Amino acid sequence: MPVDKQVIQRYKILDKCFRSAEGMTYLELLDTLEDNGIKVDKRTIQNDMVVFGCEYGAVFEPELKRGRERLFRYSDTNQSIFAKRLSEEEKGIISRIVEKLRVHDDIPHYQWMIYILDGLVNLEDYEDIGRHIEFQNNLLLAGSDLFSTLMEACMNKYAISFSYKPYKAPAVIKFVFPYLLKQYNDRWFLIAKDYEAQKLFIYALDRVVEDTIKKVPAMEYEEPDWKYLDNSLSNLVGISGAFNDENDERTPIADVRIRVSRSRIPYIETKPILQWQEIENEDNEAGTSILSLPGIRINKELESLILSFGPDVEVIEPVSLRERIKAKLGYTIKHYD
Q1: Is 5-83 CATH 3.40.1000?
Q2: CATH topology for the 253-334 domain
Q3: Measured in whole angstroms, how far is the alpha carbon of residue 136 from the centre of its chain?
Q4: With contact defined as beta carbons under 8 Å apart, do 154 and 181 qualify?
Q5: C-beta neighbour count of 82 within 10 angstroms
Q6: Considering the entire predicted model, what is its pTM?
Q7: Which pLDDT belongs to residue 195?
Q8: How far apart are CA 294 and CA 159, in angstroms?
Q9: CA nearest to 264, candidates 228, 308, 299, 214
Q10: pLDDT for 261-303, tens place per residue?
């Protein structure tokens, strides 16, 4: 039975409530839902319980009470409607998907997908896989629920329009060819070609006005230059200035050299800033090293990263970046004078 995302969220909360050993009253169920931002009435919960029984085979404890109040819980508190067994046809479909993903099993994102899909097919008993893995994700971030709509537009290659609201300007309607969704610092961005400007732009999903994304069949889709797009995203930290001219004074591309303390080197080696970074040990008592970042775009994200390393780093080149970092440190110190 197809259900929308809001209903699934309600089902998940109720499913967890019904698995509690003590059971819960109607009022407690309603309060729990409201605490999670879902406001419904008693009749809705009654209808949901019918669905749980008819569609998912849930069995409720028939005569559980606290005083005179009826309590609701599953007869078997280990059961869950989300543990419904897959049919052989469903298992076959998932198994074929897993085999295709195994080609990319050296990539962590695919490794966990393979593990979870394998678990859906092979686990005999219900196991809460989600309890054992957690990804960086801000559930309260505006725009998160637009992801699937925009991904569909990227994958199926059609133009879209949407209302875009910058922080300090009125909303404007954008007509774009969507190419890529990129995550950085727990936020999602759409990379697309603006139809009017005929340039690549980066749109933060939290600034796309909800329910304004529309397909534009009249606009013939324009394929991106994937090589240019990939190269532009590979030489920077974050997202800012990705498609600016390399000599743009706001986000220039330059060879950066940074002196790094001995204690910080293992961190930078295991979590590289650039794939092609170079680290060279210096012959001195302090045991410092020189981190070279050739051809990196100097943007606000790179500056923030350098500042986050604190006294463990010193920018050597270029002088312009060194002076910018020095100035920001000076402004920060003034706050504590």
Answers
A1: no
A2: Alpha-Beta Plaits (3.30.70)
A3: 7
A4: yes
A5: 14
A6: 0.65
A7: 94
A8: 36
A9: 308
A10: 988 999 999 889 988 899 998 877 778 999 999 999 999 999 9
